[in-house]
Amino acid sequence: MGRHKKPTKLLKLQGRLDPKRAKERAQEPVPAEDLGAAPDHLTNSQKEAWDEISGNAAPGVLTNSDRIAVEIASCLLDELRRSPAEMNASRIARLDSLLGRFGMTPADRSRIKPKEEQATDDPWEQL
């Protein structure tokens, strides 16, 4: 199985967006909202895991389109913390995979660069 295609936003944060492919990626849907609060149907401990994941992710990486993936990760993280000995390896691997996609593992985090302020020649933009 091939690698998953990285989102344009993550490639931009990493400084790895190929200018030749930027045009085709310009058609990628852009989420309109941030991640938001945890869904009401989660337990309190799962909501705490949601808050921890969303709070530790790099700014601008998680959006409303990622809510289901963050919900899965929150449930798995809560399960790991409640009974780590009973959690099987495939579920731990799934949690690790999701956190990696969010840029939350050491290897993935090292690839993310902070968003740089873009200089502008327009004096009105500086106000």
Report on this model:
- Helices cover 45% and strands 0% of the residues.
- The protein is built from six helices and no strands.
- The protein has helices spanning 8-14, 22-25, 44-56, 67-82, 89-101, 106-109.
- The longest helix has 16 residues, at 67-82.
- The protein is globular.
- The chain starts with 7 loop residues before the first helix and ends in an 18-residue tail after the last helix.
- Residues 115-119 have low confidence and may be disordered.
Summarize model confidence as the mean pLDDT.
82
* Order of helix and strand elements from N to C terminus: HHHHHH
Distance between the termini: 50 Å
Overall shape: it is globular
Sheet with most strands? none
Tell me briefly what this model is.
The protein is an all-alpha fold and about 130 residues long.
Please render the helix and strand layout as text.
Layout: H1 8-14, H2 22-25, H3 44-56, H4 67-82, H5 89-101, H6 106-109
Helix pairs in contact: 3-4, 4-5
Task: Describe this protein with a few key phrases.
about 130 residues, about 0% strand, 6 helices, about 45% helix, mainly alpha
